[in-house]
Amino acid sequence: MAVSLDLAFVRSQFPAFKEPSLADQAFFDNAGGSYACQAVIDHLNQYYRETKLQPYHLHPAAQKAGAQMDLAYQRLASYLNVKTSEVHLGPSSSQNTYVLAQAFGKILKAGDEIIVTNQDHEANIGVWRALEARGIVIKEWQVDAQTGSLDIGELEALFTKRTKLLAFTHCSNIVAEINPVAEICARAKAAGVATVVDGVSFAGHGLPDVDALGADIYLFSLYKAYGTHLGVMVIRDAMADKLGNQAHYFNKAYRQKWFVPAGPDHAQVAASRGVLDYFDALHDHHFETTDSTTEKAQRVRGLLHDAEQVLLSKLLSFVNQHPKLSLLGPSDPAKRAATVSIIPKGQTSQELAQKLVDQGIICGAGHFYAVRLLDAMGVDANTGVVRLSFVHYTSAEEIDQLIQALEYSL
């Protein structure tokens, strides 16, 4: 029997829903950053009060600080189904991809090829394109101009013996279509091509089983998944060994420092385990206990997905039938995440977004760093789209509030 999400329990775990200044404001800008759960806030508060000092040093408070950080890496790894040594926490996903590009730039040779898409956020495109200055050949896996979709059948033709890397997104932050990551990674692996997958727009809807996806590198932003403002980067050990240490030479013995040359934000790293505390609580509230974290993560992922799909279907139904709205991406909710980008007729995206904000709808308008995608689809990036994004803590009443606001504003 399917388990229904207990929304009252969920919202009780997020202080933002008790905040008077946010009362009656419906949050539809989750793709830009989700609310932080109570467990994360508690851990962050505790760290700053009790252990705000250099971790891992001799004092018991320093030892406690280091232990909290270690636990965060371990718990994230367990939920993502990878080794603890493969989890790296940097300042942001944009910074993480920059470090990655510098690392690849040291091992690639002039004439080697990297495939990027024009569907991605610029953070997973621009850093690789910049390597053209070093003689690296950049190929573009292009979207369909009408749908914004990537055709996996067109990928094979881009592979050659010189192709070393494929960078693509799990889920676009504009068209929101969920790409078949496992199949794409399998094809790349068969061609001897490494993969970097941007999961920023996917992970907030349920942390993925990275091992099952088969990606060599998987990235997402923790602050878009109920946590602190950090970028999570999974680099499988074999790939990390090829890239080598990017930090101070004397830190070579510490794998989790290799790809964070700026050094970790101790408090935020320690507090990030609060996301897993929340997922544990969510699981135990809805399901029988299990010792398998992989099973737990799978159950939570399904719970979040099912809750969002019901609401997404209702919103898409409204958008699809409205004569003054154009939807970007698939109209089938089963093919996309709960991020809905629309273009209004008769007014700019900014004008519509302002009208929605005036009615208590928290949303945004713009290109959202997907300029190349909008250009490919013939959308003026200067005005961009209205992006309405939600997650499992969104209520049916808030979807109704959004629809009513749209009806009034169009």
Automatic annotation (TrEMBL):
The keyword Transferase applies. PANTHER family: CYSTEINE DESULFURASE, PYRIDOXAL PHOSPHATE (PLP)-DEPENDENT ASPARTATE AMINOTRANSFERASE SUPERFAMILY. The lineage of its organism: Bacteria, Pseudomonadati, Pseudomonadota, Gammaproteobacteria, Oceanospirillales. It comes from Marinomonas profundi. This is Aminotransferase class V-fold PLP-dependent enzyme. Keywords: Aminotransferase, Pyridoxal phosphate, Transferase. InterPro entries: Aminotrans_V_dom, PyrdxlP-dep_Trfase, PyrdxlP-dep_Trfase_major, PyrdxlP-dep_Trfase_small. Residues 27-402 form the Aminotransferase class V domain. GO terms for molecular function: transaminase activity. Pfam families: Aminotran_5 (PF00266). It comes from the Bacteria.
